[in-house]
């Protein structure tokens, strides 16, 4: 076990419940992709093979955030598809390692329950907290995606991260 995994907090990912939705509003930082502030009208699908999301629950059974994903293709055949994950941790739960632990956990789910070879994440070049959390979760920084994401009225550079089945 790596030192980071040894000190990781216990985290559970479970399907979203209607009572979670008001707690998963986002919109508090410029990197937050989950705004505007209104809660989602219904729980997200939790089937890994579709776009979906799971609620992140901490060791005290508190709703700590949300981890979501969609699918991207690097070629026309299904074997070249990969999951792209995103995360939002409630502000009062940040800095405890939950972001890294939840991203590590969802990667385990993808490799255990789908045949995907690669799980990706993409974040703003200035989002150092997410870059650190991804690196602690075992992702490799692959490069800068210039002008890839429209945010805050401009095209912004991002950083692409990925973890392969063979990396674990
Ligand atoms: C990014 C986010 C998911 C991280 O979640 P978290 O539970 O706080 O993450 P962790 O505690 O696992 O790790 C955070 C790491 O970033 C570091 N960090 C936190 N804030 C930081 C900052 N402003 N600048 C630099 N590093 C920072 C922490 O020290 C920690 O690094 P360490 O492992 O070296 O100690 C959370 O901040 C969040 O939800 N932000 C808003 C939404 C968002 O940006 N999502 C990602 C979109 S791509």
UniProtKB/TrEMBL annotation:
<feature type="domain" description="N-acetyltransferase">
    <location>
        <begin position="11"/>
        <end position="166"/>
    </location>
</feature>
<dbReference type="GO" id="GO:0005737">
    <property type="term" value="C:cytoplasm"/>
</dbReference>
<dbReference type="InterPro" id="IPR016181">
    <property type="entry name" value="Acyl_CoA_acyltransferase"/>
</dbReference>
<dbReference type="InterPro" id="IPR051908">
    <property type="entry name" value="Ribosomal_N-acetyltransferase"/>
</dbReference>
<dbReference type="InterPro" id="IPR000182">
    <property type="entry name" value="GNAT_dom"/>
</dbReference>
<protein>
    <submittedName>
        <fullName>Acetyltransferase (GNAT) domain-containing protein</fullName>
    </submittedName>
</protein>
<dbReference type="Pfam" id="PF13302">
    <property type="entry name" value="Acetyltransf_3"/>
</dbReference>
<dbReference type="GO" id="GO:0008999">
    <property type="term" value="F:protein-N-terminal-alanine acetyltransferase activity"/>
</dbReference>
<dbReference type="GO" id="GO:1990189">
    <property type="term" value="F:protein N-terminal-serine acetyltransferase activity"/>
</dbReference>
<feature type="region of interest" description="Disordered">
    <location>
        <begin position="1"/>
        <end position="25"/>
    </location>
</feature>
<keyword id="KW-0808">Transferase</keyword>
């Amino acid at each position: 076990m790596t030192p980071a995994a040894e000190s990781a907090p216990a985290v559970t990912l479970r399907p979203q419940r209607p009572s979670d939705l008001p707690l998963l509003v986002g919109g508090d930082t410029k990197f937050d992709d989950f705004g505007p502030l209104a809660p989602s009208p219904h729980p997200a699908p939790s089937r890994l093979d579709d776009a979906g999301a799971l609620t992140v629950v901490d060791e005290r059974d508190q709703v700590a955030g949300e981890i979501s994903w969609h699918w991207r293709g690097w070629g026309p055949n299904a074997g070249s598809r990969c999951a792209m994950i995103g995360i939002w941790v409630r502000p009062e739960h940040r800095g405890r390692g939950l972001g890294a632990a939840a991203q590590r956990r969802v990667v385990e789910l993808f490799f255990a329950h789908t045949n995907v070879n690669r799980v990706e994440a993409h974040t703003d070049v200035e989002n150092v907290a997410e870059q650190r959390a991804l690196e602690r979760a075992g992702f490799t920084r692959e490069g800068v995606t210039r002008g890839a994401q429209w945010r805050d009225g401009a095209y912004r550079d991002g950083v692409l991260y990925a973890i392969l089945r063979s990396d674990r």
